[in-house]
Amino acid sequence: MNDKTIRKIKNTLPHGMWKVMVSFARFLRRIKYKTIMTFSSKKLELYCPCCGIRFKNFGRGDYVIPDFYDVSLFEGVPQDIRCNVCGSLPRHRILTSWCIGNKSLLTSKKILYFAPENCVIKWLKRNKMDVTTADLYNVDAQLKLDIQKTGLPDNSYDFVICNHVLEHVDDVMTALMEMKRIIRPGGFFICSFPVNPDIDLVDEDRSVTTDEERLHRYGQSDHVRLFGINADRFMTDAGFDVTFIEGKDYPDEILPITAPSKYDINRLYLCKVK
Protein backbone atom coordinates (compact mmCIF):
# COMPACT_ATOMS: atom_id res chain seq x y z
CA MET A 1 0.00 0.00 0.00
CA ASN A 2 1.57 3.29 -1.07
CA ASP A 3 1.58 6.60 0.85
CA LYS A 4 -1.12 8.12 -1.34
CA THR A 5 -3.55 5.27 -0.56
CA ILE A 6 -2.70 5.47 3.14
CA ARG A 7 -3.42 9.20 3.18
CA LYS A 8 -6.76 8.59 1.50
CA ILE A 9 -7.75 6.00 4.11
CA LYS A 10 -6.56 8.29 6.93
CA ASN A 11 -8.66 11.17 5.62
CA THR A 12 -11.72 8.92 5.30
CA LEU A 13 -11.72 7.26 8.73
CA PRO A 14 -12.56 8.93 12.07
CA HIS A 15 -9.33 10.00 13.77
CA GLY A 16 -9.79 7.66 16.74
CA MET A 17 -10.33 4.64 14.52
CA TRP A 18 -7.28 5.55 12.43
CA LYS A 19 -5.11 5.73 15.58
CA VAL A 20 -6.29 2.30 16.72
CA MET A 21 -5.54 0.79 13.29
CA VAL A 22 -2.05 2.31 13.19
CA SER A 23 -1.24 1.14 16.72
CA PHE A 24 -2.44 -2.38 15.98
CA ALA A 25 -0.47 -2.55 12.73
CA ARG A 26 2.69 -1.43 14.53
CA PHE A 27 2.08 -4.01 17.26
CA LEU A 28 1.81 -6.81 14.69
CA ARG A 29 4.93 -5.62 12.85
CA ARG A 30 6.88 -5.51 16.09
CA ILE A 31 5.90 -9.10 16.94
CA LYS A 32 6.84 -10.24 13.44
CA TYR A 33 10.28 -8.65 13.34
CA LYS A 34 11.04 -9.36 17.00
CA THR A 35 10.40 -13.03 16.24
CA ILE A 36 12.63 -12.90 13.19
CA MET A 37 15.36 -11.19 15.22
CA THR A 38 15.12 -13.81 17.96
CA PHE A 39 15.11 -16.93 15.82
CA SER A 40 16.85 -15.98 12.58
CA SER A 41 20.04 -17.87 11.82
CA LYS A 42 21.10 -15.11 9.43
CA LYS A 43 23.09 -12.07 10.46
CA LEU A 44 20.81 -9.06 10.69
CA GLU A 45 23.17 -6.20 9.91
CA LEU A 46 20.79 -3.25 10.21
CA TYR A 47 19.47 -1.82 13.47
CA CYS A 48 16.89 0.78 14.46
CA PRO A 49 17.81 2.46 17.75
CA CYS A 50 14.32 3.95 17.99
CA CYS A 51 12.55 0.62 18.47
CA GLY A 52 15.53 -1.67 19.17
CA ILE A 53 14.86 -4.14 16.34
CA ARG A 54 17.42 -5.62 13.94
CA PHE A 55 16.72 -6.20 10.25
CA LYS A 56 18.19 -7.67 7.12
CA ASN A 57 16.82 -4.69 5.18
CA PHE A 58 14.96 -1.50 5.91
CA GLY A 59 11.68 -0.91 4.11
CA ARG A 60 11.12 1.28 1.11
CA GLY A 61 9.77 4.77 1.67
CA ASP A 62 7.14 5.76 -0.87
CA TYR A 63 7.91 9.42 -1.48
CA VAL A 64 7.03 9.62 -5.14
CA ILE A 65 3.77 11.57 -5.01
CA PRO A 66 3.92 13.94 -8.01
CA ASP A 67 1.51 16.55 -6.65
CA PHE A 68 3.39 16.78 -3.34
CA TYR A 69 7.05 16.04 -4.18
CA ASP A 70 9.31 16.87 -7.10
CA VAL A 71 9.81 13.23 -8.07
CA SER A 72 12.94 14.00 -10.12
CA LEU A 73 14.77 14.68 -6.84
CA PHE A 74 14.29 11.05 -5.82
CA GLU A 75 15.60 9.42 -9.00
CA GLY A 76 18.75 7.40 -8.45
CA VAL A 77 18.63 7.85 -4.66
CA PRO A 78 18.17 4.67 -2.55
CA GLN A 79 14.72 4.57 -0.99
CA ASP A 80 15.21 1.59 1.38
CA ILE A 81 15.45 3.81 4.43
CA ARG A 82 12.33 3.29 6.58
CA CYS A 83 12.27 1.09 9.69
CA ASN A 84 9.86 -1.79 9.17
CA VAL A 85 8.46 -1.51 12.71
CA CYS A 86 8.39 2.10 13.92
CA GLY A 87 8.74 3.86 10.57
CA SER A 88 11.90 5.77 11.52
CA LEU A 89 13.87 7.54 8.81
CA PRO A 90 17.62 8.26 8.86
CA ARG A 91 17.25 11.56 10.72
CA HIS A 92 15.24 9.83 13.47
CA ARG A 93 17.83 7.09 13.91
CA ILE A 94 20.63 9.67 13.97
CA LEU A 95 18.79 11.76 16.57
CA THR A 96 17.97 8.75 18.74
CA SER A 97 21.57 7.51 18.50
CA TRP A 98 22.72 10.94 19.66
CA CYS A 99 20.22 10.83 22.54
CA ILE A 100 21.51 7.40 23.60
CA GLY A 101 25.04 8.78 23.78
CA ASN A 102 23.95 11.95 25.60
CA LYS A 103 21.35 10.74 28.09
CA SER A 104 22.82 12.90 30.83
CA LEU A 105 21.81 16.02 28.90
CA LEU A 106 18.21 14.83 28.72
CA THR A 107 17.59 13.12 32.06
CA SER A 108 15.53 15.17 34.52
CA LYS A 109 15.19 17.94 31.92
CA LYS A 110 12.02 19.51 30.52
CA ILE A 111 11.82 18.70 26.82
CA LEU A 112 9.50 20.29 24.27
CA TYR A 113 9.09 18.44 20.96
CA PHE A 114 7.60 20.36 18.01
CA ALA A 115 5.97 18.31 15.24
CA PRO A 116 6.47 15.16 17.34
CA GLU A 117 7.82 12.14 15.52
CA ASN A 118 6.33 8.99 17.01
CA CYS A 119 9.43 6.80 16.74
CA VAL A 120 11.59 9.27 18.70
CA ILE A 121 8.83 10.12 21.18
CA LYS A 122 8.46 6.41 21.98
CA TRP A 123 12.19 6.16 22.76
CA LEU A 124 12.09 9.25 24.98
CA LYS A 125 9.10 7.94 26.93
CA ARG A 126 10.58 4.44 27.29
CA ASN A 127 13.62 6.10 28.83
CA LYS A 128 11.50 8.13 31.27
CA MET A 129 12.23 11.51 29.69
CA ASP A 130 9.97 14.44 30.57
CA VAL A 131 8.75 15.31 27.07
CA THR A 132 5.83 17.52 26.03
CA THR A 133 4.61 17.50 22.43
CA ALA A 134 3.57 20.61 20.50
CA ASP A 135 2.13 21.30 17.07
CA LEU A 136 -0.04 23.88 15.39
CA TYR A 137 -2.20 21.33 13.53
CA ASN A 138 -1.64 17.84 15.01
CA VAL A 139 -4.64 17.13 17.25
CA ASP A 140 -2.66 14.52 19.18
CA ALA A 141 -0.04 17.01 20.35
CA GLN A 142 -0.36 18.06 23.97
CA LEU A 143 0.06 21.76 23.20
CA LYS A 144 -1.27 23.67 20.21
CA LEU A 145 1.56 26.13 19.52
CA ASP A 146 2.87 28.29 16.71
CA ILE A 147 6.66 27.96 16.85
CA GLN A 148 6.96 31.64 15.90
CA LYS A 149 4.84 32.81 18.83
CA THR A 150 4.34 30.15 21.49
CA GLY A 151 2.97 32.28 24.32
CA LEU A 152 5.14 30.25 26.71
CA PRO A 153 7.01 31.98 29.57
CA ASP A 154 10.70 32.82 29.21
CA ASN A 155 13.10 30.00 30.09
CA SER A 156 10.33 27.37 30.09
CA TYR A 157 12.28 24.37 28.81
CA ASP A 158 15.77 22.86 28.96
CA PHE A 159 15.58 21.20 25.56
CA VAL A 160 13.57 21.78 22.40
CA ILE A 161 13.50 19.40 19.41
CA CYS A 162 12.17 20.54 16.04
CA ASN A 163 12.69 18.45 12.89
CA HIS A 164 11.57 19.57 9.42
CA VAL A 165 9.50 22.53 10.58
CA LEU A 166 11.59 25.60 9.74
CA GLU A 167 11.15 25.08 6.00
CA HIS A 168 7.40 25.66 6.55
CA VAL A 169 7.28 28.77 8.78
CA ASP A 170 6.75 32.33 7.57
CA ASP A 171 9.87 33.76 9.22
CA VAL A 172 12.83 31.62 10.25
CA MET A 173 14.50 34.21 12.48
CA THR A 174 11.25 34.88 14.36
CA ALA A 175 10.95 31.15 15.11
CA LEU A 176 14.60 30.85 16.18
CA MET A 177 14.45 33.89 18.46
CA GLU A 178 11.29 32.47 20.03
CA MET A 179 13.10 29.20 20.70
CA LYS A 180 16.01 31.05 22.28
CA ARG A 181 13.56 32.94 24.50
CA ILE A 182 11.81 29.84 25.88
CA ILE A 183 14.98 27.76 26.39
CA ARG A 184 16.85 28.18 29.65
CA PRO A 185 20.49 29.36 29.63
CA GLY A 186 22.72 26.36 28.96
CA GLY A 187 19.82 24.52 27.31
CA PHE A 188 19.67 23.12 23.79
CA PHE A 189 17.67 23.36 20.58
CA ILE A 190 18.00 20.49 18.09
CA CYS A 191 16.62 21.03 14.61
CA SER A 192 16.91 19.68 11.08
CA PHE A 193 15.51 20.56 7.67
CA PRO A 194 16.05 19.66 4.01
CA VAL A 195 19.39 20.99 2.77
CA ASN A 196 20.60 21.56 -0.77
CA PRO A 197 24.43 21.44 -0.66
CA ASP A 198 24.55 23.55 -3.84
CA ILE A 199 22.92 26.51 -2.04
CA ASP A 200 24.92 28.72 0.33
CA LEU A 201 22.40 29.99 2.88
CA VAL A 202 18.80 29.76 1.67
CA ASP A 203 16.60 29.93 -1.41
CA GLU A 204 13.32 31.70 -0.66
CA ASP A 205 11.05 34.06 -2.54
CA ARG A 206 7.83 35.49 -1.10
CA SER A 207 6.40 35.86 -4.60
CA VAL A 208 6.30 32.03 -4.82
CA THR A 209 2.86 31.38 -3.32
CA THR A 210 1.12 28.44 -5.03
CA ASP A 211 1.61 24.75 -4.28
CA GLU A 212 2.78 24.13 -7.84
CA GLU A 213 5.35 26.94 -7.69
CA ARG A 214 6.67 25.69 -4.35
CA LEU A 215 6.81 22.14 -5.65
CA HIS A 216 9.10 23.12 -8.52
CA ARG A 217 11.14 25.70 -6.60
CA TYR A 218 11.64 23.92 -3.28
CA GLY A 219 10.86 20.28 -4.07
CA GLN A 220 7.75 20.00 -1.90
CA SER A 221 4.41 21.76 -2.27
CA ASP A 222 4.16 22.93 1.35
CA HIS A 223 7.73 24.26 1.69
CA VAL A 224 8.37 28.00 1.57
CA ARG A 225 12.18 27.83 1.36
CA LEU A 226 15.11 25.51 0.76
CA PHE A 227 18.08 25.80 3.09
CA GLY A 228 21.70 25.73 1.97
CA ILE A 229 24.86 24.09 3.26
CA ASN A 230 25.69 27.06 5.52
CA ALA A 231 22.22 27.41 7.06
CA ASP A 232 23.73 27.16 10.54
CA ARG A 233 24.36 30.90 10.18
CA PHE A 234 20.67 31.42 10.94
CA MET A 235 21.08 29.78 14.34
CA THR A 236 24.35 31.59 15.02
CA ASP A 237 22.75 34.93 14.16
CA ALA A 238 19.92 34.11 16.59
CA GLY A 239 22.51 33.77 19.37
CA PHE A 240 23.04 30.01 19.56
CA ASP A 241 26.36 28.17 19.69
CA VAL A 242 25.98 25.61 16.89
CA THR A 243 27.58 22.22 16.33
CA PHE A 244 26.59 19.51 13.84
CA ILE A 245 25.19 16.06 14.49
CA GLU A 246 26.35 14.29 11.33
CA GLY A 247 24.83 11.03 10.11
CA LYS A 248 28.18 9.87 8.74
CA ASP A 249 29.59 9.85 12.28
CA TYR A 250 27.23 7.07 13.39
CA PRO A 251 27.55 3.28 13.00
CA ASP A 252 26.89 1.57 9.70
CA GLU A 253 24.22 -0.61 11.33
CA ILE A 254 21.72 2.29 11.37
CA LEU A 255 22.36 2.75 7.65
CA PRO A 256 21.45 3.56 5.02
CA ILE A 257 22.59 7.01 6.10
CA THR A 258 21.17 8.58 3.02
CA ALA A 259 18.40 11.03 2.47
CA PRO A 260 15.49 10.05 0.23
CA SER A 261 16.16 12.89 -2.22
CA LYS A 262 19.05 14.65 -3.90
CA TYR A 263 18.40 17.92 -2.07
CA ASP A 264 18.90 16.55 1.44
CA ILE A 265 21.80 15.69 3.72
CA ASN A 266 21.65 13.90 7.05
CA ARG A 267 22.72 16.67 9.38
CA LEU A 268 21.04 17.86 12.54
CA TYR A 269 21.95 21.11 14.27
CA LEU A 270 22.73 21.13 18.00
CA CYS A 271 22.19 24.72 19.15
CA LYS A 272 23.17 25.69 22.69
CA VAL A 273 21.78 28.75 24.44
CA LYS A 274 24.71 30.81 25.72
Can you give a write-up of this model?
- With 274 residues, the protein is an alpha/beta fold.
- It has a domain at 89-273: Rossmann fold (3-Layer(aba) Sandwich), CATH 3.40.50.150.
- Helix content is 31%, strand content 23%.
- The protein has helices at 3-12, 15-39, 90-101, 103-106, 118-126, 172-182, 211-218, 232-237, and strands at residues 46-48, 53-55, 59-60, 80-82, 110-114, 130-135, 143-144, 157-163, 183-192, 195-196, 202-203, 226-228, 240-246, 267-273.
- The strands form 4 sheets. It has a 7-stranded mixed beta sheet. A 3-stranded mixed beta sheet has the order 10-12-11, with no helix packed on it. Strands 1-2 form a two-stranded antiparallel ribbon.
- A hairpin with a 4-residue loop joins β1 (46-48) and β2.
- The chain is globular and about 55 Å long.
- It starts with a helix and ends with a strand.
- The model has no long low-confidence stretch (mean pLDDT 90).
Mean pLDDT reading:
90
Radius of gyration: 19 Å
* CATH-defined fold name of the domain at 89-273: Rossmann fold
CATH architecture of the domain at 89-273: 3-Layer(aba) Sandwich
The N- and C-terminal alpha carbons lie at a distance of 47 Å
Strand count, sense and closure of the main sheet?
7 strands, mixed
What's the arrangement of strands in the largest beta sheet?
A: 7-6-5-8-9-14-13
Text of the CATH class of the domain at 89-273: Alpha Beta
